[in-house]
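Dear colleagues,

For the upcoming journal club I promised to circulate an example of a predicted protein-ligand complex. I picked one with NAP because it came up in last month's discussion. The inputs are reproduced below in full, followed by the predicted structure.
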Amino acid sequence: MNERTFYWALLAAFALSALVVFPILFFVSAPYGRYEGKRVGPKVSSRVGWILMEAPAALAMPLLFAISDRTSSVTAIVFLALWELHYLNRAFVYPLRTHGRPMPLVVAAGGALFNVVNGYLNGRWVFTFSEPYELGWLADPRFVLGVVVFFAGFFINQQSDAILRRLRGPGETGYKIPYGGLYRWVSSPNYLGEILEWIGWALATWSPAGAVFALWSFANLGPRAWAHHQWYRRTFPDYPRERRALVPFVF
Ligand SMILES: NC(=O)c1ccc[n+]([C@@H]2O[C@H](COP(=O)([O-])OP(=O)(O)OC[C@H]3O[C@@H](n4cnc5c(N)ncnc54)[C@H](OP(=O)(O)O)[C@@H]3O)[C@@H](O)[C@H]2O)c1
């Protein structure tokens, strides 16, 4: 099997797995944070867990860029910059600031595997298997709209994660009702922002790999946002009634 055949088979399996996992995650939440179970095996600190989980995505992209023949393409450099804006933060800045609970090693390992596959699929596409993106692509409406959506999502995600972070002092592990920003409208605006980022990436790269990543983000974070929302409503009798789970006024 040549690499292109392998690539398409992997992408198809990855898309299929998102469709399979989506309904399951409405019944079983990934066992970290407020859903950590007792039988989850060894744990690592939240900081170590996030680095282990996200570093592969931050490293895969520059590696695939470096071994490609597009290292002098401005468009390729812009794609690399967008990806790294998100993943350098998620892998190396977010973990240093989090006050999260220890994370099961199995969750960190599963996340790392996801990021290896997803990093490969996206990096290999934009730097090697796609038709070369010419300089004019940067003025294409799909790219421009995608970048706007990506940055809107990035801002919402950062703002929302910062609001959560401020709810805990050093050493605290309890939960409070978050207020401010898009928490006015939904229980998990950080997830909404994350999903928007990858929809923006899919538009800006106009790629099958980007589309599957956006699908995966929704399949993973949509059910988790729903679970968070139910948990908040069960836990806090005074939880704001008008809040939805993920999409303002809708869901
Ligand atoms: N692309 C993807 O598929 C993907 C997958 C997973 C996560 N992410 C991103 O990674 C980031 C973190 O994800 P997450 O699942 O850990 O998000 P989360 O459940 O919203 O928690 C984020 C952080 O805030 C804390 N926290 C949450 N609710 C709180 C509350 N009511 N009071 C006090 N502290 C609270 C959590 O602590 P505990 O850990 O102790 O609960 C955790 O440290 C998000 O930006 C998310 O979008 C992306």
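Two points we might discuss: Residues 3-235 form one domain. The longest strand covers residues 43-44.

See you all on Thursday,
B. R.
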